[in-house]
Amino acid sequence: MSFRKQLESICQQAPGSLAVMVMSMDGIAVMKHEVQDPGLDMEVFLIEMVGPVRQAMQACESVSAGDMTAFDMKVGKGHLLFHHLVDEHFVALLMAPDAVVGRGRFALRLHSRALNQELS
Fold first, then answer.
1. How remote is the C-alpha of 105 from its chain's centroid?
2. CA distance 23 to 102
3. Do strands 70-75 and 78-84 pair parallel, antiparallel, or not at all (unpaired)?
């Protein structure tokens, strides 16, 4: 299944999804799918978030907590869920403020293997 189909499937499985994007830790967008206008420029937002996510990953490593595989945050526009992929890539899902975040986490985890294969 292609990147586009994987991203569409993530949004279908997680009601309340606004947009999903695969991006490298260098801030290079690989693919994006929007269900509706999220009310912000998701690419710019994720570029700004790469630094703090890297710091959180390094903090986990420095205290021997293990690899950080997921990161969630609540912002005014909704919930932003990160899931780490291979080769310094991640997938990020923006969900509406009233969405069931657990469905988004499950969809990201479910599709991470296929996304990793597409990146390899």
1. 9
2. 22
3. antiparallel
Residue by residue, pLDDT tens for the chain (120 residues) are 688 899 999 999 999 999 999 999 998 999 999 998 888 899 999 999 888 988 998 899 899 998 888 999 999 989 999 999 997 899 999 999 999 999 999 999 999 999 999 888
- The Cα–Cα gap between 20 and 115 comes to 12
If we measure between CA atoms, which residue out of 88, 94, 91, 95 comes closest to residue 113?
91
- What Cα–Cα distance (Å) separates residue 45 from each residue in 12, 22, 23, 26? 23, 13, 12, 13
- Residue 2's SS3 state is coil
Is 76 in a helix, a strand, or coil? coil
Q: What one-character-per-residue DSSP string does 5-24 give?
A: HHHHHHHHHSTTEEEEEEEE
Residue ranges and CATH numbers for the domains of the chain are 3-119 (3.30.450.30)
